[in-house]
Amino acid sequence: HESQAFFGVPALTHIRDILAQFEAPIVSTLVQRFALPVKPQLYQGHNPPLQAYLGARELDAILHGRYNYGTLEYPFTFSTIAADRATSQNTFPAGRFHQDSFVGNPNLIAFYIQTLVPSMNSSTTPYFYHLSNSTQQTVPDPNREDGALSLDVTLLQLLSNRAHVGKIVAEAKFTGDPVTYTKLIKARNADSIRMLLANTTQEASVLAQADTAAIQLSNAWIASGALVPSTFQDTIRTAAMKTFRNLIDITTEIEVQYLLERLH
Ligand SMILES: O=C(O)C(=O)C[C@]1(C(=O)O)C=C[C@@H](O)C=C1
Description:
By secondary structure, this protein is mainly α. The protein has helices at residues 12-20, 23-34, 49-63, 105-116, 146-164, 166-176, 178-186, 190-197, 200-223, 232-260. The chain has 10 helices and no strands. Helix 5 (146-164) crosses helix 10 and helix 9 runs antiparallel to helix 10. The relative contact order is 0.19. One of its GO terms (cellular component) is cytoplasm. It is found in: Cytoplasm. InterPro entries: Chorismate_II_sf, Chorismate_mutase_AroQ_euk, CM_AroQ_sf_eucaryotic. It comes from Sphaerobolus stellatus (strain SS14).
């Protein structure tokens, strides 16, 4: 593991621009996914087909270095984290990324399967067309559900990368007030750390931007002739709101956990 690389984090205003870059791709993928039917069996059970599909895709991603140190991408089906430890050679001064052991992906998967998947429509007409009718089977075969599962994976990876940018949000905030944060970290005071991190004005702006993206991108589908139900835009706006509300909460949790391990 290449933790000997030293990564300085950008300023908070720059990181918020980085976070904003995720909104259109996330909502755009949400629109694509919601335009396909849902087969609940792909997401049910102890080891659902989605999990197996993710595992195969992530094995490939590991080989491509997608989860290397400092990428802020973390797999759902493998544990790859070696947490940093301060040494006399590297004391991790404020402003330097410090890898902690927390991954928010279990929270994301739970939200995806328990909240987002049930709000997808099973009677939507699929836009993939197979002469074999393989997209219309009643019993799904994950090998034939590549279209839907592939969008699930893309969406989960975007959500995950966005949430783990929380690690550098936390470092930027730590750098802004090391004395206060150090005191709270030493006291293991997670609640006060969470309160100090929260910025409701910023949250409102993230949610408003996500709603704008939901309106614009669903409009674009309708205006370009997609055969979607008249409820499509409302469905997308509701899904986008739930998604970003949850994403902010998971991002915040990743920030809190990062800080709790910051002095290791
Ligand atoms: O921008 C920040 O200050 C963040 O901590 C990020 C974020 C977000 O997820 O967008 C999370 C928590 C804050 O309450 C506001 C926004």
